[in-house]
TrEMBL record, chains A, B:
Organism of this sequence: Flavobacterium difficile
Keyword Metal-binding: yes
Reported function: May play a role in DNA repair. It seems to be involved in an RecBC-independent recombinational process of DNA repair. It may act with RecF and RecO.
InterPro entries: DNA_Rcmb_RecR, Rcmb_RecR, Rcmb_RecR_Znf, TOPRIM_dom, TOPRIM_RecR
Name under which the protein is recorded: Recombination protein RecR
Pfam families reported in the protein's UniProt record: RecR_C, RecR_HhH, RecR_ZnF, Toprim_4
Matches recorded under SMART domains: TOPRIM
Length: 206, 206
C-alpha cells in the first residue's frame, strides 16, 4: 500500500499490529475515526492509556481489578477454600455469568506453550502452589481449555500439588447442551460415556 | 458482560465503538495490549492522536495529505485537466496501484445516501463544480462504486456539470479479469455486451 500521508501510514501500521487486524481493516478503522468528531479518538486513546497504566491485578487471584484485592476475593459469602484455576479474565467472566460457582479463582495468565514460548515461570503457578502449601485450599478445579496446552498446564500443576492431598477436579467434558449426538466428535462422545453421571443428579441441574 | 474492572470496561467499550468490532473482539484486543509492553499502547495511542489532530486534506483534491497540496496535485508531470472523481482515499490508493492513470483526483468524502443521512452538501461537490466552471478541466471520470448510492452521486454531479460541455466518462463495468462467464451476474454481463470494445484496443492493454 502506498499512503498519501505519513501520519495516516503510521496510524494504520500501529492498528494493524493488533491480533487479527490486517492492513485493510486497520485502514477502515482509521478512516472511520477521521470521519467521526475528534472527541471519539480522544476518548478511545485516553481509555486505552488509562487502562494500560493504571490497571491492577488482584494480589490474591491475579484477576484484573481496580483494587489490590478484587471484589470476588473480597466477598465474605464466597467459599475461599475452593479455587478454580483459569487462563485469563475472560474465563472468570464466563464462569461468573453461569451464576453456578461460589468459590474463588486463580488466574494463570496463560497456558504452558513451548510453541509460543510460554514457560511455567511466566505464569502465576508458584503463588497457587503456595496457597495449597499454606493449607488454605480444600479443592482445586481446573477450568482450562481442553487443548494440548491446557492439558499440559493441568498436569504440570497437578504434579506439584498432589503431595498435599487435596481434592483436584477438572470441569466435565461432554456433549454441549442442545447438541445432536451424531455431530459430536468421537473423543468428546467417548469421554462423555466414560464419565457418565447418575441420571438423578443430571436432572437436578436442569 | 460483567467486568471486574471499570478501567477494562471503559477500554473495551471504546474499542467496540469502532465499526465491525464487537465486545468480544474488543476484549481480545484490549487483553492483547495488556500482555504487551506498555510501549505498544503508547505508540498506538500517539499515532492515532497525532493522525486525528494533524492530518491535512489537500486543498485542491481533498485527499488526505501531509501538506496543503498533496503530492499528486503537486506533480507537474500529471495531467491536471483530467479529474477522476472517487469516494475516499482508499480508492485513490487502489487506482494509483494500477499505475495506469496519469490525471489528478477529486475525493468526494462519501456518496449521497439518504439512508445513512449523507446529503450532497456534506460532500466535496461544490469545489468540483467550481473547477469545471473555471474551465480547468477537460474530462471528468466517475470512479465511484457501482451501487445505488454511487449511481445517484454520479447523476447528481452530472446534472450540474453537463452544461459546461466537457467530456464526462465512467470507469467500465464488465467481467473481472480471470472470471468465468457462467458465474457472472446478468446485469454485469449485459452491460459488458452493451459496452463492448474493439478487440484491437482490448489487446493493447494486455
Amino acid at each position: 500500500m502506498e499512503f498519501s500521508s505519513k501520519l495516516l501510514e503510521n496510524a494504520v501500521n500501529e492498528v494493524a499490529m493488533l491480533p487479527g487486524i490486517g492492513k485493510r481493516t486497520a485502514m477502515r478503522l482509521v478512516l472511520h475515526l477521521l470521519k467521526q468528531p475528534s472527541e471519539q479518538t480522544i476518548l478511545l486513546t485516553e481509555a486505552l492509556t488509562k487502562m494500560r497504566n493504571e490497571i491492577i491485578y488482584c494480589q490474591n487471584c491475579h484477576n484484573i481489578s481496580d483494587h489490590t484485592i478484587c471484589e470476588i476475593c473480597n466477598n465474605p459469602t464466597r467459599d475461599h477454600s475452593i479455587v478454580c484455576v483459569v487462563e485469563d479474565v475472560r474465563d472468570v467472566m464466563a464462569i461468573e455469568n453461569t451464576r453456578m460457582y461460589k468459590g474463588i479463582y486463580h488466574v494463570l495468565g496463560g497456558k504452558i506453550s513451548p510453541i509460543e514460548g510460554i514457560s511455567p515461570s511466566q505464569l502465576n503457578i508458584t503463588s497457587l502452589v503456595e496457597k495449597v502449601q499454606e493449607q488454605k485450599v480444600s479443592e482445586i478445579i481446573f477450568a482450562l481449555s481442553s487443548t494440548m496446552e491446557g492439558d499440559t498446564t493441568n498436569f504440570y500443576i497437578f504434579k506439584q500439588i498432589k503431595a498435599f492431598n487435596i481434592n483436584v477436579s477438572t470441569i466435565a467434558r461432554g456433549i454441549s447442551v442442545g447438541d445432536e449426538l451424531e455431530y459430536a466428535d468421537e473423543v468428546t462422545l467417548g469421554r462423555s460415556l466414560l464419565h457418565r453421571i447418575p441420571f438423578e443428579s443430571s436432572i437436578k441441574s436442569m
